[in-house]
Amino acid sequence: MTKINFQVLLPNDQTNFELIADWYLSEWQIPRDKTIQRLQTITADPSQFQILLTLNGSPVSTGGLYDYVGLLDKEPRLKIHKHWLALVYTIPDKRHQGYGALICKHIQDISKKSGIETIYLFTDTAEQLYKRLGWSEMERINIGERNVVIMKKVLLNDNRE
């Protein structure tokens, strides 16, 4: 029987920070020290978090809810938005099996339980996944060669979009 577990990482979880740093380096060329430092900061802040999904005890996927994402450097006008779903990653041999969707839903559930009304993301690779998960497009922008869609998801039913 397959056992899926979600773990909210803690500030002293160096082993998992290093694993995630390796994943982010291979996928997006984000320097390891930058990822480790960021994960230490995020996990120490109660308004942000990083989740690790394990399958039968083996790490498979990760992602988090961040107050700051790199897009804000290029588009400062978007700083009005907090709570960004970011850096969702699934190991290559487990992709297209629903683990990315599971971790996104788990991040959304934690966010909703925390009272967060709306969360945001940007992507140039996984738009269809997020549409299937109920995200809506806010706008599209070009960043260099990338055509990026900015999306949002309303978590609390407060009649506001």
What percentage of residues falls in helices of 4 or more residues? 25-40%
Class from helix and strand fractions: alpha+beta
Task: Give the C-level CATH assignment.
Answer: Alpha Beta
Q: CATH-wise, what's the superfamily?
A: Gcn5-related N-acetyltransferase (GNAT)
Integer tally of domains:
1
Strand order, main sheet: write it out: 1-2-3-4
Biggest pleated-sheet summary: 4 strands, antiparallel
Average residue pLDDT: 93
Low-confidence stretches: none
Strand content: 25-35%
Shape: globular
> Radius of gyration in whole Å, from Cα?
15 Å
CATH topology grouping: Aminopeptidase
Query: Distance N terminus to C terminus?
Result: 41 Å
Please count the beta strands (DSSP E, at least 2 residues each): 7
Number of helices: 5
Order of helices and strands: EHHEEHEHEHEE
Molecular structure report:
Its EC number is 2.3.-.-. Keywords: Acyltransferase, Transferase. InterPro entries: Acyl_CoA_acyltransferase, GNAT_dom. GO terms for molecular function: acyltransferase activity. Pfam families: Acetyltransf_1. It is a single chain. Helix content is 32%, strand content 32%. The chain is an alpha+beta fold and 161 residues long. It has one domain: Gcn5-related N-acetyltransferase (GNAT) (Aminopeptidase), CATH 3.40.630.30. The strands form 2 sheets. It has a 4-stranded antiparallel sheet, with helices on both faces. Strands 5-7-6 form a 3-stranded antiparallel sheet. Strand 6 and strand 7 form a beta hairpin. It is globular. The model has no long low-confidence stretch (mean pLDDT 93).
